[in-house]
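General statements about sequence and structure are easier to judge against a single worked case. In the encoding step, the backbone of a single protein was reduced to a row of integers, each denoting a local shape. The record that follows shows the chain in one-letter code together with its fold in token form.
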Amino acid sequence: MPDSHDTPVLLWFRRNLRLGDNLALACAAESGRPVIPVYILEPSGSGNGPLGAAQSWWLHHSLQALDAALTRIGSRLILRQGHADEVLGALIAETGATHVFWNRRYDPAGIAVDSPLKEEMTRSGLTVRSFFGQLLHEPSRLKTGAGGHYRVYTPFWRALEASGEPAEPVAAPTALAAPDIWPASEQLATWALLPTKPDWAGAFSTVWTPGEDGARQRLDHFIDTGLAGYKAKRDFPALPHTSMLSPHLALGEISPATVWHATRGLNDRIAAEDVIHFRKELAWRDFSYHLLYHFPELDRENWNARFDAFPWQDAPDLLECWQRGQTGYPIVDAGMRQLWRHGTMHNRVRMIVASFLIKNLMIDWRHGERWFRDTLVDADPASNAASWQWVAGSGADAAPFFRIFNPISQGEKFDVNGDYVRAFVPELKDMPNSFIHRPFEAPPMVLAQAGVKLGETYPLPIVDHKVARNRAMAAYQALPRPDDAA
């Protein structure tokens, strides 16, 4: 294909909606060629679009922020919808581009698009370059001593830590050469990413600021106010000791290397154990992608095939109670309502509500994975699936199935004064601390004084925890053992 230094570079943005520490963007800028940034809304399941309705809201605002950032350096964002090969082919024909740059993605759907596309474009004479930057490491790079992939997190972390610091983040370009003629762009509003009737995401903006600037502000705020004490306090949902960076990482508004390097040199004011524990959480995301890369069915099939025989219950009414936060267990209901109101849920509470669905209700973990995928602004194909299988006991390095959270004691341990429950289950706001997590045990006088009518203003428990626990354990113990004859 004929080429000159005047032909443009198509810069394909995917889950890397940022200017800073973006290797594809940096190389495009350094090429001296005109650069045409493009975002393609691919069909559902292709790996680039939002995973669900909540993340669609985020994507809309993130694309607005990215376009504004590009405008500040003399460029703009071209929006197109369709299959990547068709859209890029049309743009190449329209613009005469001879180079296509992108940052790599590692989910199965994304790889299924990218690998043949890169081969076909290269055969046709285009210069196609892909770059690293979504993770701290390439999922195929870290190997066990036997040359295989890791199945247990702790040795994975040790290998990651021993592999050295991530590369220093690359600065954002201050200018980007523009083409003489811009190709046409679709209008973001026509993509209908925002909910309208009803606008169930109305409260999202009270919590979140999508975009690279919002990600940087969130990181700075966390380091200033939340990182000190992180290891000890991160499990308490009413305390501000989680980073809230996961949705920014999910769409690549900030790179994990940027987050990692921001935690260096803090020993004079923040304990090393807090920094290390936070970095381990960041590395869990990498471990999840490591698992997904080597087991592409992670969101659909049990990692441990022994669980294929588990007798899951078909209970749509109970599933709906869980989804709506109407289980009768306050810490579970608070988490599910936080999810609906703000598109997020505290990490400790995620484990509690997942254990409740899987082990108290004996509903297949895949139902929970799909619900989180649709309702979380930080929905992530690797972390979501790996975490659900971890709780279910069916995943790699999973918590044992017999680790069944008691939703009452978990609430009393991690939401001691009921502040989290009162924030999201207001009908219980006047319950005394001693009964905030067990209103079904409160004397009638206590309920009356709090204005609570069980079964009317707040539901009775949909299952008895002790009975449900025994049922789940019996089902687990009846599963075939690995050494049982086929």
